[in-house]
Amino acid sequence: MNTVGIAEIKRSISTIVNRVAFGRERIILTSRGKPKAALVSIEDLQKLEALESTTSPPSRTQRKAALAMAQAVREMTLARRGGVPFSDVAEDLRRLREERDLELAGVH
After folding, report:
1. Distance CA 1, CA 38 (A)
2. H or E segment at 87?
C-alpha cells in the first residue's frame, strides 16, 4: 500500500483518486509522517461494509457457552492430572520476574 502526505493530496487529488478508483490502489494518507486515513475504491468499501455487517460480537449466550466449555475442559484436565491443581500462572510469572530482576542486579 502506498502512502501519500496530505500536502500531496491537496496538489494531486484528481490523479490520486483515479489511481484508487481505476487502478485498484489503496493509499494511506499521512500527516506529519503518521497514518491518518486511507483512500480505497468503492468496491473495497462495499466489501468492508459487507464484512462489517456479517461479523458481530458474540452474544451473552455464546460467551456463557464458551465459558462453560472452558470450565469443562479445565475439569477434564484436572481429572487427568489426578486432581493435582494447576499452578497460579500469575504467581509463577511474578516469581520468575523477581528472580530475573535479582540476577540482573547481580544479587542472585
Report:
1. 10
2. none
**Cell reading at 76:** 477434564
**HSE value, Cβ hemisphere, 13 Å, CA-based, for 45:** 7
Per-residue pLDDT tens digits for 61-99: 988 999 999 989 988 888 888 888 878 888 889 999 999
* Alpha carbon distance 55, 66 (integer Å): 18
38 DSSP β-pair partners: 28
CB neighbours (10 Å) of residue 39? 19
Cell 494518507 belongs to 29
Query: Grid coordinates in use for 78?
Result: 484436572
Beta bridge partners of 28: 3, 38
Backbone angles phi, psi at 33, to 5 degrees: 80, 0
Helix (H, G, I), strand (E, B) or coil at 24: coil
C-alpha cell of residue 50: 459487507
Cell matching residue 46? 462495499
